[in-house]
Amino acid sequence: MPDDATPEAAEAGENSTAGTAEARKERIAFLGLGHMGGPMSVNLVKAGYTVAGFDVVPAALAAAREHGVPTVGSAAEAVSGADVVLTMFPSGRHVLDAYQGAEGQPGLLAAAAPGTMFLDCSTINVDEAREAARLAIEAGHRAVDAPVSGGVVGAEAGTLTFMVGALPEDFEAVRPMLEVMGKRVVLCGDHGAGQAAKVCNNLILGVSMIAVSEAFVLGEKLGLTHQALFDVASAASGQCWALTTNCPVPGPVPTSPANRDYQPGFAGALMAKDLKLALNAVQSTGVAARMGPLASEIYDAFAAEGGAGRDFSGIITDIRDKSAK
Length: 325
Prior knowledge:
Distance between the termini: 33 Å
Strand order of the largest sheet: 2-1-3-4-5
Oligomer: single chain
Structural class: alpha/beta
Order of helices and strands: EHEHHEHHEHEEHEHEHHHHHH
Strand content: 5-15%
Shape: elongated
Number of helices: 14
Mean pLDDT: 92
Largest sheet: 5 strands, parallel
Radius of gyration: 20 Å
C-alpha cells in the first residue's frame, strides 16, 4: 500500500533508530528480497543488524548483494542461528508452506532454534496469519504478524507503517527493528490483528480511489478543470489520501503517479489482491458490505485488462474510457 495510506495508524512511533550504525544483537534471517523486502533488508543492515538474506529469485538475491545485504544459498541456511526469521512473501500459502515445509522439504519452524521469533511482514488473509502464529507457537517459537503500508518508496526511505498483531512482550521485542524500517509502528491487537487492520485500511483506500476518480471524470464532463475540483475537494468534505497524496490526475499533486504515466507506486495487481483479502474477511464475518465487493470486482477487471502493472490510481483511465463520449 502506498505511503501514508494509513488512517489506522493514529498513534505513531517515530523512527529514531534508522540510519544508525551501532551493532545490534539480533541476527535476522530475511526471506523474500523483492521490491519491498530488498530495501527493507538494506535498512536493517545500515542500522547495524546482522542479516542473512535469501530469495528464490536470483535477480533479487543479486540486487540485495549489490546494496550491501549478505545473502546465503538457501532459506535453511539463513535460518540457522537466526534470532528472528522475517518473511516477506507474496501470499499466505507461501508463508504456511515455508513454515511447515512442502514437497518433502523441512520447513522453517523445524530448522529454527527453539524460541526463534517468526516475524511475518507479508500481506495475507487474517485466518492464514492466525494459523501461521499457531504453528510457530506450537513448534516452540514466538510469532508476530506485521504487514506494511508505504509501498516501495516507503520501504526505501524507511518510512513504512507497520500494523502489528502480537502479544505485548513480543511486540516490544520486535519494535526496535520495525522502527528502523518504518516511521509508524502500531500494535493493533493479538495475532492476526495486523492483517485485520491492513485489509480494513485498504478497503477504505480502494473504494475512495474509485470515488475520487469517478468525481474527476464527472468534473471533466461538467466542464471543471482538474485544479478547480482539487482546490475545492481537498479543502472540503471530499478530502482524503487518494485525492491529496495520490491524486489520479496529473497536475494538482506533482508527486503523484499520474504525473509519471501511472508508474507505481502501488500497482493495480496489488490493490486487486488486497481487496480480495478484504472480501475474504467480509465473507467470513458476514458483514453486509456492498462497496468493498464492488471495488474488488472493479480492480480485478482493471488488473486483468492491462492495469496490473500500473499504479492503482490509473483506474481513472478505465473509468474515462468506459464513459459515454
